[in-house]
């Protein structure tokens, strides 16, 4: 991933158009000339004297100057030679409008694209396409589009791989008198892809939001890193069809990826742009809560309430008792529901004013929807003025549904102050996107709780179990192996004992001395129910022997005498009164790797279909967020005396997350049922499918997992032993505690400002890092993350190219003068060198002499900052050192 030279694509000073002088070239040239593009536009076509009234050059070498950007309409097969010539001349950006020919095989198409990349690479030249139909930056008058184009500058950028979607978006903008900051159709995305576009737009201040249409993602790690970074900086709204082909992965995988990335997903093109407008023009709710609906139409209010159940069944919709009591005097019918609040058909500005005053104070209300239908004989101006006044002072979103016949003057006055809609369903859907955006940002910034128990899996036992099964050519673990694998990851499960045959099964049952469950184990039997391979509540050795013999007889009748038998699994029967039956596990997610899920368990799991999923790695907060998206969670959270240990359930998801991170050979894992009660959890039945290992999960998971290999113990000169490890999201409170107990002057040295404590957003940004692009090492006392005291941190943040990384460092006063500063710097420099980062740099206050001395001792170049006389710029090259 790289943003190198992308400015030549999006901010060129000059443009060349290389084609055959045909109709397509004429359209593109007219688009380039139709707006006030400040640089020269130079068409090139052999045998053509002029095009659209502009002189045409015969060859690249005839140009009077080197173009920053070249738009090539020639066939893709001719592009490599043209790119080499442009690269040698100094051009650094190319748009290929032609697609790979339809008759090419997949191998031939890939070879053509690779030839383009090979030609561009020596010159660091960036290519959009092949098949890129539109690259537009209206602010500078750049419109390299194959169709007639007229587009005003806007505040949102569009990125798409679909030419039809780019054309539809432009048509929508024309019809709705709207604009865009950028239109980037990446076509085949041989070079510049979604991730590159996101990285560029993240720091492009003219794009206040980014809207995206995608059908599938190729490079999931690159996509996730780039879109998560972008979503932290500005709203990202995604439109993706649920299914785009028979080979597509299930939509729930994309839904999980989008939630984890912090983006808002919409359902259609109209909503794609509406979501941008509502996020740009309205406040975002501060919390999940009720959308209070009020107005002068009972029917319109009921339609809004019905839409709420359809678009957002998570947030509660009840007002506080105090609000309900205060609003009763305003309602047409005091006995009717207070949400929606029907003010009566003749309600005027005063009634709206009083209702808004009450609802604005209600902390259970996260947003307000005011409805104005035709009623009293007025133009609505007074009601609109009331709504505008409250919108300016409210700290929650205020939306309006305004029937055009309810007063044109009021609607006109309302337009500049409050987002207005014609229909209640549209307004409610817009509010649901505001809630979705708030929730997605919470996932990106909320500090998770610490892990409720120390968790240290038995990697060696797990490795032996999986290796043995793979060596034997198995694709599924039997019950005994499954129980041992779960136990290796400290997941409580029913004790399982293995017996080779019926006689031994009876002996095992006798030793247990209680009723047992008997299960036949055979890799050739997918469903034990087909051969009666499970028997419950068997008492005594003889009953177990008899049932085991009967199972073998049934198996041989169905599968023949040569069938493979692993033996029998014997488990004591267990009862846990009041326990909930849940299901948790792992499913394949295609290019996104394994996906974790949680839901309603038991025999009706498939019929109930109440489950939610997420991507690894997980922490406690992310695990609870998955659980909260199911219907059964409300029952679990409000179950009175049956209250289950929800932390234990979340911790089980975390343990499964770590399992699939540690072992890529686990393809799927299903625990059903998982009993959950106040005593914790217990896995009653589970199945594990495996496949040959495809490499280190850290290399192919879409989110780089926690780099445990960097952890080590260190000993201070005074004999104290501390722990050095990469930072975890759970460290936020302890990092803040270190800042709070540090002298103000030391805090100022680190953050260049006076801070008594870290703001929540800053704490999350420092601890919830993308390990693929950033690294932060912390020195802590021994203990569970989130509880162990943090005594120091060093951090680097690299650009997408890994060209350079900025560092910062802070130590607690209690370990000052013990050599931890130089040690942390050595560790982070070594890490940066292994990652291929070419330079580390930082800004140090001129008065921070201890840090400057460390920099000089480590070989950093130290020089005054060009931007601030109080700062020193320090830098260390890593790519040319021995």
UniProtKB/TrEMBL annotation:
SMART domains: CoA_binding
InterPro entries: Acyl-CoA_Synth/Transferase, Acyl_CoA_acyltransferase, ATP_grasp_subdomain_1, CoA-bd, GNAT_dom, NAD(P)-bd_dom_sf, Succ_CoA_lig_flav_dom, Succinyl-CoA_synth-like
Ranges where the N-acetyltransferase domain occurs: 722-881
The entry's keywords: ATP-binding, Ligase, Nucleotide-binding
Keyword Nucleotide-binding: yes
Pfam families referenced in this protein's UniProt entry, alphabetically: Acetyltransf_3, ATP-grasp_5, CoA_binding_2, Succ_CoA_lig
Domain of life, source organism: Bacteria
PROSITE patterns for this protein: GNAT
Name of the featured protein: GNAT family N-acetyltransferase
Classification lineage: Bacteria, Pseudomonadati, Pseudomonadota, Gammaproteobacteria, Chromatiales
């Amino acid at each position: 991933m790289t943003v190198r030279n992308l400015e030549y694509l999006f901010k060129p000073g000059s443009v060349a158009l290389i084609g055959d002088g045909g109709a397509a070239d004429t359209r593109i040239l007219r688009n380039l000339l139709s707006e006030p593009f400040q640089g020269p536009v130079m068409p090139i076509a052999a045998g053509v004297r002029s095009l659209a009234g502009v002189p045409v050059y015969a060859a690249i070498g005839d140009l009077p100057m080197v173009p920053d950007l070249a738009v090539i309409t020639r066939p893709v097969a001719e592009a490599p030679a043209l790119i080499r010539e442009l690269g040698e001349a100094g051009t650094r950006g190319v748009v290929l409008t032609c697609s790979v020919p339809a008759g090419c095989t997949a191998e031939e198409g890939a070879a053509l694209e690779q030839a383009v990349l090979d030609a561009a690479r020596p010159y660091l030249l960036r290519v959009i396409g092949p098949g890129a139909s539109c690259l537009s930056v209206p602010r500078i008058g750049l419109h390299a589009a194959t169709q007639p184009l007229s587009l005003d500058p806007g505040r949102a950028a569009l990125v798409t791989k679909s030419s039809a979607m780019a054309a539809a978006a432009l048509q929508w903008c024309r019809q709705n008198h709207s604009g865009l900051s950028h239109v980037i159709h990446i076509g085949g995305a041989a070079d510049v892809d979604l991730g590159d576009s996101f990285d560029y737009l993240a720091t492009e201040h003219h794009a206040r939001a980014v809207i995206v249409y995608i059908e599938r993602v190729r490079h999931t790690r690159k996509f996730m890193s780039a879109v998560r970074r972008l979503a932290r900086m500005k709203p990202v709204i995604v439109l993706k069809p649920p299914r785009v082909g028979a080979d597509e992965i299930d939509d729930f995988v994309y839904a999980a990826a989008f939630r984890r990335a912090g983006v808002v997903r919409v359902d259609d093109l109209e909503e794609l742009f509406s979501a941008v407008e509502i996020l740009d023009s309205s406040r975002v709710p501060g919390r999940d809560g009720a959308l209070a609906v009020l107005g002068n139409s009972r029917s319109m209010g009921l339609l809004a309430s019905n839409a709420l159940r359809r678009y957002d069944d998570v947030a509660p919709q009840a007002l506080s008792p105090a609000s309900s009591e205060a609003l009763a005097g305003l309602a047409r019918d005091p006995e009717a529901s207070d949400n929606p609040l029907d003010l009566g058909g003749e309600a005027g500005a005063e009634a709206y004013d009083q209702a808004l005053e009450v609802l604005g104070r209600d902390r259970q209300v996260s947003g307000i929807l005011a409805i104005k239908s035709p009623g009293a004989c007025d133009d609505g101006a007074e009601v609109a003025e009331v709504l505008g006044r409250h919108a300016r002072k409210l700290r929650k979103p205020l939306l309006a549904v305004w029937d055009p016949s309810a007063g044109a003057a009021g609607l006109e006055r309302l337009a500049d102050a409050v987002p207005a809609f014609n229909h209640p369903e549209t307004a409610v859907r817009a509010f649901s996107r505001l809630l979705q955006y708030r929730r997605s940002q919470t996932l990106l910034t909320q500090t998770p709780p610490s892990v409720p128990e120390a968790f240290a899996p038995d990697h060696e036992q797990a490795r032996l179990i999986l290796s043995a099964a793979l060596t034997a050519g198995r694709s599924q673990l039997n019950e005994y192996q499954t129980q041992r694998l779960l136990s290796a990851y400290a997941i409580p499960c029913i004790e399982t004992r293995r017996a080779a045959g019926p006689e031994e099964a009876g002996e095992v049952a006798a030793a247990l001395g209680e009723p047992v469950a008997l299960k036949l184990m055979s890799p050739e039997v997918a469903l034990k129910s087909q051969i009666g391979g499970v028997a419950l509540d068997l008492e005594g050795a003889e009953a177990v022997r008899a049932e085991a013999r009967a199972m073998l007889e049934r198996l041989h009748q169905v599968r023949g005498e040569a069938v493979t038998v692993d033996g029998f699994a014997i488990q004591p029967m267990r009862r846990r009164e009041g326990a909930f039956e849940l299901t948790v596990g792992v499913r394949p997610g295609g290019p996104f790797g394994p996906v974790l899920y949680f839901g309603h368990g038991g025999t009706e799991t498939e019929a109930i279909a109440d489950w939610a999923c997420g991507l690894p790695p997980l922490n406690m907060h992310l695990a609870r967020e998955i659980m909260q998206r199911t219907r059964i969670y409300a029952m679990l959270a409000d179950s009175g005396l049956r209250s289950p240990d929800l932390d234990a359930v979340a911790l089980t998801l975390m343990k499964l997350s770590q399992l699939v991170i540690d072992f890529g050979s686990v393809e799927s894992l299903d625990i059903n049922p998982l009993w959950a009660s106040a005593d914790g959890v217990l896995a009653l039945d589970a199945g594990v499918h495996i496949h040959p290992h495809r490499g280190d999960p850290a290399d192919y998971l879409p989110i780089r997992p926690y780099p445990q290999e960097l952890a080590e113990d260190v000993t201070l000169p005074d004999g104290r032993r501390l722990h050095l490890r990469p930072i975890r999201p759970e460290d936020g409170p302890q990092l803040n505690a270190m800042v709070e107990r540090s002298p103000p002057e030391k805090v100022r040295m680190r953050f260049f400002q006076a801070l008594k404590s870290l703001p929540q957003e800053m704490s999350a940004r420092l601890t919830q890092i993308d390990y693929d692009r950033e690294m932060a090492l912390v020195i802590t006392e021994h203990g569970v993350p989130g509880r162990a005291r943090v005594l120091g941190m060093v951090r680097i943040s690299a650009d997408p190219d890994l060209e350079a990384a900025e560092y910062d460092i802070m130590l607690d006063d209690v370990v000052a003068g013990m050599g931890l500063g130089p040690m942390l710097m050595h560790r982070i420099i070594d890490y940066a060198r292994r990652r291929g980062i070419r330079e580390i740099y930082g800004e140090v206050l001129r008065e921070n002499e201890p840090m400057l001395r460390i920099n000089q001792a480590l070989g950093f170049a130290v020089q005054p900052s060009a931007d601030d006389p109080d700062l020193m710029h320090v830098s260390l090259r890593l790519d040319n050192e021995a």
